[in-house]
Specification:
The protein has helices spanning 28-35, 37-40, 56-62, 79-83, 88-109, 122-130, 147-159, 168-177, 218-231, 251-261, 276-279, 297-304, 317-320, 335-347, 349-366, 369-388, 391-397, and strands at 3-5, 15-20, 45-52, 68-71, 113-116, 135-139, 162-165, 183-185, 204-209, 235-240, 268-272, 285-288, 309-312, 328-330. By secondary structure, the protein is an alpha/beta fold.
Length: 400
């Protein structure tokens, strides 16, 4: 049975939006929506939400949303996922009950719009559609091209009244298979950083915030560290990110070997999950070595604090960073290039300062929570109009 956290059964407000989160951890996709909550209020929206299980996201959501409902989620999105505990049979048996709980929650809250926060929230979005509710489905991921992605996006377009991509790179992928379903681009924003002095480290520290995985290029980050340390032994490297969420076979052994090869000893610290705000103040340079990215928050958070960023030219990252204007862009899978720029930024204080200041200005101008909330508000209104407005208004609302 879904259990509520905080608030009354039906949240107050002129307009109710009910968000479905697929993850138990407070990662980028869920955090980006929760960050925008306060900025949705002036438009009349009162958000509540559905969280799977009792992980860290449940507490984070309860602190921000008018109402949080939670239930263990038996669904998985791969054969491997279905086989994980409690196993295929138990998952299959529990799934119908879980979907009934989703329907009961929607009937209880009676939202005006349902916000499915990632493509992995498609099952919950399908229940909302069956209930006759307007659905906005937002993609924070940029899945690889192929038959599975094509089928997934086509199914999403059939369920959703509006599709939302967090970058042009994501929206272009959605539009290829969306048919008549409108697609909006709503880029993530970040809060204005709390004024604080940067930690005075004796060493020059390079950091990265990302889930430990091949997709996020954790191995590339460690290889770049090894190369850069051969030229500048005084550098220090820190990586903050949850482990074992992507379950990459053999990655742990590979990273352990790379860590042992890094010299001098003590130059690398794998910190595990840490909030970005905790680690960013002590870093001099931020590295995003991902092989795939939709529109990461961590790079924006680093830029907002004036930390120069080195990032790969994948997904939505070039929409955040202009090379040598407000950051550095390198090809993916190129630790040598990352190391080269790390050495240069270490040696060139003026370049480091200029890129950091330009990054702050770009975030303040382009990637605010106000802009994000305005984009979500437009998506919600479009979904309402496409479902309930007179025919002429519905046709106009279908143009993205």
């Amino acid at each position: 049975m879904a259990q509520p956290d905080g608030g009354s059964d039906v949240p107050p407000g002129l307009l109710r939006v009910f968000a479905f989160f697929h993850e138990e951890h407070a990662l980028g996709a869920s955090t980006s929506f929760l960050n925008a909550i306060d900025e949705l209020a002036p438009y009349g929206w009162t958000p509540s939400g559905w969280v799977p299980g009792s992980g860290p996201l449940r507490d984070a959501a309860a602190a921000r949303l008018a109402l949080v409902l939670a239930a263990e989620r038996p669904l998985a999105f791969s054969v491997r996922g279905w086989r994980e505990r409690p196993g295929v049979v138990v998952r299959a048996v529990r799934t119908p009950r879980y979907l009934r709980e989703v329907r009961t929650a929607l009937e209880r809250v009676r939202p005006h719009v349902v916000h499915a926060n990632t493509l992995r929230s498609l099952p919950e979005a399908a229940v909302a559609r069956a209930c006759g509710l307007p659905v906005v489905l937002q993609s924070h991921e940029i899945p690889p091209r192929g038959p599975k992605t094509t089928a997934t996006v086509r199914y999403a377009a059939g369920i959703a009244d509006v599709l939302v991509g967090v970058s042009d790179a994501v929206s272009d992928l959605l539009r290829r298979h969306a048919g008549d379903t409108p697609v909006f681009t709503v880029r993530n924003g970040v809060p204005e950083p709390i004024a604080q002095s940067r930690t005075d480290n004796s060493s020059f520290t390079v950091g990265s915030v990302a889930t430990v995985s091949r997709t996020k290029g954790t191995d590339v980050f460690l290889r770049a560290a090894r190369i850069a340390l051969e030229q500048r032994p005084g550098l220090r490297f820190e990586h903050a990110g949850a482990t074992d969420l992507h379950r990459d076979a053999g990655l742990d052994d590979e990273l352990a070997l790379l860590a042992r090869e890094i010299a001098p000893a003590g130059s690398l610290a794998m910190l595990g999950y840490r909030p970005a705000a905790e680690v960013l103040p002590r870093w001099n340079v931020f590295v995003c070595s991902s092989r795939s990215e939709a529109f990461p928050l961590a790079t924006l958070e680093a830029m907002a604090m004036g930390i120069p960023v080195i990032a790969t030219t994948v997904g939505g990252l070039p929409e955040q960073i202009e090379h040598l204007e407000n950051g550095i862009l390198v090809r993916p899978d190129d630790p040598e290039a990352i190391a080269t720029w790390l050495v240069r930024l270490h040696d060139d204080v003026d370049l480091r300062t200029r890129l950091g200041a330009a990054g702050v200005e770009r975030v303040r101008r382009e990637f605010t929570l106000e802009r994000q909330a305005n984009g979500l508000h437009r998506a919600y209104l479009t979904a309402l109009n496409r479902r309930f407005a007179p025919p002429r208004v519905r046709r106009a609302a279908s143009v993205s």
